[in-house]
Design a protein that fits this description.
This protein has 7 helices and 2 strands. The chain is mostly helical. A hairpin with an 8-residue loop joins strand 1 and strand 2 (37-38).
Length: 215
């Protein structure tokens, strides 16, 4: 199997995992807005971006968002576009930064930047697009930004960043064990960092506790 075929196989596998995660896991995070649900597809997408770069992340995001639109989503093409913007902002931002510095520090910096960029981007796009499918005046949506949309995207970004840091090494190691990607260079290899595990778990727990308090 040549490298191009291997790459297509991995992208197909990650796209399938992203789609499965959307179909099986949809958790409401904001009691005041139950239509805002969390699914972990961005975790899979950003892992693909870390392995193959931002273009790969965008491809997986488009595939997963399209399947979501024709299956479980009730927001149609508008939701499709919103999902691509959200997943692309998160995964592509992280992948671009990590591509320039393929180290633990680069991965953390990429995910933190992605967390911030996605939150800002979704505030803008929610303000512009949500009135179109909710059929409400824009000032109503503006009043929902700080109490609902900002906390939701911060929680979503925190969960995605935490899970991505926990799962990137194991997923990449499994793909490498299947001989679908080449051996890791020294600076990108090594055992899982215990500090990364602890930090990731703390971020995830903080997000979960926040949701529990709100409920």
């Amino acid at each position: 199997m040549n490298e191009k075929t291997k790459r297509i196989s991995v992208l197909g596998m990650l796209s399938a995992l992203a789609v499965i995660s959307v179909l099986l896991i949809r958790v409401p995070l904001m009691p005041a807005a139950p239509f805002l649900t969390y699914d972990p597809k961005d975790v899979i997408i950003v892992i693909g971006g870390f392995i193959y770069g931002p273009l790969a992340a965008l491809i997986i995001a488009v595939v997963a968002s399209f399947v979501e639109m024709i299956t479980v989503s009730d927001t149609g093409p508008i939701g499709f576009v919103m999902n691509i913007i959200s997943s692309g902002a998160f995964a592509c931002t992280a992948a671009i930064i990590y591509k320039q510095n393929r180290t633990l520090k680069g991965a953390v910096a990429g995910l933190m930047a992605a967390w911030i960029v996605t939150t800002i981007a979704m505030v803008l796009w929610n303000y512009l697009i949500v009135p179109l499918y909710m059929e409400v005046p824009r000032h109503v949506v503006a009043g929902m930004l700080l109490p609902i949309f900002v906390p939701f995207n911060l929680l979503k970004g925190g969960l995605n960043a935490g899970f991505a840091m926990l799962l990137y090494k194991p997923v990449k190691s499994a793909i490498r064990a299947a001989n679908l990607i080449p051996p890791s260079p020294a600076k990108d290899g090594g055992a899982i960092n215990i500090g990364v595990v602890i930090g990731s778990v703390l971020v995830i727990l903080a997000c979960v506790l926040f949701v529990m308090v709100m409920v």
